Amino acid sequence: MQTATEIPSEPKTTTLRLLLVEDDDGDAEIVQRNLRRAALDDCVKTTRCTRLEHALERLEREAFDVILLDLGLPDGVGLGNLERVAARATVPVVILTGRDDEATAMRAVRSGAQDYLVKGHFDHLVLARALRYAVERHRLVIELRQAAARESELKDRLLSHVSHELRTPLTAIHQFVGILRDGLAGPLQPKQLDYLAIVGRNVEQLRRMIADLMEVSRLGSGKLPLDIGLVDVTACAAEAVESLAGAAAAKGIELSTNLERQAPRVLADHARITQVLENLIGNAIKFTADGGHVRVGARSNPDQTVTLTVEDDGCGIAEEALGRIFDRLYQVQPMTDTGRHGLGLGLHISHEIVSLLGGRMSVRSEAGKGSCFAVVLPVYRLRSLVERVLGNSPGTYVTLLSVCLRDRSGATASIPEAAFREVVRAVQSCVLEATDAVLPERAGNDRHEHLFAIARANSGGGAAIAERIRAHLSERGRIESLGCSTEVAWQTFDPEPGESRNDSIERMTRRIRVEMQAKGEQP
Fold first, then answer.
1. Which three-class secondary structure state does DSSP give residue 360?
2. This prediction's pTM
3. At 153, phi and psi to the nearest 5?
C-alpha cells in the first residue's frame, strides 16, 4: 500500500507524478492539452489508466503525487471508485465528473476528495490550480494528522508509564493488607480490622483506575486485544447481571431483565460485550437511589441489528452533559451525593469498544427521571460482509481465502484451540481492515479446520495475500510446535458484465457459501 511521505507542493518546480484514470480518449486529451497550455507538460509525468482495476494495480506498484479520477468507468461507477482508491493509497484525489453529475462530485469531496473538475468546463489555469491546491491541502492534512498523532502518542505513553509504575507498589500494598487482615502477622483489634477494610477498599478502587488507564492506553495505540467470534448477546447480559446482583441487592435495587430468547448472534468479543454491560449496569446501580429499579434488555430489530439496553430510574443526566458523556475523563456532576469513584473513563472505554466492534452506543436521559443507555450491534450475516467488501461498485473482484489447519499426528482429537487462534492472528495481520474481512465461521471435522477471509482483490491480489499468510505462519513456527500443519488457498470471483450491485452481492454470497461448505466436507 502506498503511503504519503514527501509530497511536492509546487508542480512548476517539482516533477509531479499524476495518475489519470479516464476511459474516454477525448477527455484524456483535454487534460493533456491543458497541461501543455499551463506549461506543465515537462514537469508533470502522467500515467493514464482506462479501467479502475488497472489503476489500483499501478497504485500497488508505483508512487503517485495526485490522482485525477473519473467517477464513470467501465468497471466502476460513483463514489465506490473513490473508496477503492482510498483503500489502496494515501494520495490526494481530484474528481473528474460530467456536468449532470456535479452533486455526486460534491459528495465525493465530502468523502475525502480534494477537489472536482467538471468535464468541458475547466481551462489550463483551473486545472493547474486544482492540482497544486490538492497536493498542498493533502500535505497540510497529513502534517496536522501527524502532529495530532504525536500528541496523542505522548499522552498515551504517559498514561501507560504512570499506570505501570503505580501498579507495582499498589500490588505490594494489596498483598500486605491481606497478610495483616488474615492475621498472619499477629492478631489485630476490631478497630484495626475496620481500618484495614477501608484501606483494602481504596486499594481496589485504585487498581480499577489503573486498569482503566491501561485500557485507554491500549485503545489509543490500537493494541486493545479483541477475541472476535459469534456472540450470544443474551448470554453476555445474563453474565453481567449475575456479577452485579450482589451490588444491587446491597442497595435494595431491583435488577430485572427482559432478554429475547434465541436472539441472533453478532460478530463481536464475548468478554468485551460483557465488560461494557457490567460498566453500564454498575453505573446505573451507583446513580440510582436505594430501593430503585434497573432494567436490562436485549432485543432483535428489523434492520438486522440487536439492541442491548440498561435503563434506570435514578438521578438522570443534565441535558448539557449528554453531548460529552462519552468523552475521555469526563464525569457528570451527580444530582445526588454518590461520591466520585473513578476517573471518568468507563463510558469512554465502553463507547470505544462498541465502535471497534462495528456498533454504536447512545443515551437518552432526563434529569431527575433516570437514564437509558443503548448498545446497537449488527447481526452477523455473510451477506453483510460480502457487501462491505464489494463496496459501492458491482464491478469488483472478490477473493475467498482459506487456511486449512490439519492435525499432523493422525489422531481423531480436535484441533487445539491455540493453533486455530494462531491462524486467526496470522490472517488478520495480512488483510486490510478497511476492505477485507475475516469470517467467524469454521468448517471441518476432527482432522482439519478451515478459517476463511474475503478480500477486495483480483486473482493476482489474492495470490499475494495468500503468500503473505504463508510467510507469516512459517516465520512464527508456532503451528508446527502444536502438532499441526497449514495449507493456504484462494479463489477469485469475477464480476459479471452488466450485473447490478445487489445481484452481484447475492451471487457472490452464494458462491462463497458453497465453497466454504465444500471445504468443510473435504476428507
1. strand
2. 0.58
3. -65, -40
CB atoms within 10 A of CB 3: 9
Residue 26 has pLDDT above 80, yes or no: yes
Q: Are 232 and 364 in contact (CB under 8 A)?
A: no
For 126-147, write each residue's pLDDT tens digit: 999 999 999 998 889 888 888 8
DSSP annotation string for 93-147:
EEEEE-GGGHHHHHHHHHTT-SEEEETTS--HHHHHHHHHHHHHHHHHHHHHHHH
Give how far Cα 258 sits from Cα of 241, 263, 310, Å. Answer: 11, 12, 10
Return d(Cα 488, Cα 401) in angstroms, integer.
7
In this model, does residue 185 exceed pLDDT 70? yes
List of E strands, 13-126: 16-21, 44-49, 66-70, 72-73, 76-77, 93-97, 115-118
Higher pLDDT, 126 or 332: 126
Q: CA angle, corner 275, sides to 428 and 370, nearest 5?
A: 135
Distance between CA 277 and CA 375 in Å, rounded?
9
Give the 3-state secondary structure of residue 400. Answer: strand
- Which three three-digit cell numbers place residue 475? 516465520
Q: How many CB atoms lie within 10 A of CB 299?
A: 15
Region 93-121: what's the mean pLDDT?
A: 84
Helices (H), 233-338: 233-250, 270-286, 319-322
Distance CA 427, CA 429 (A): 5
**How many Å apart are CA 113 and CA 95, to the nearest integer?**
7
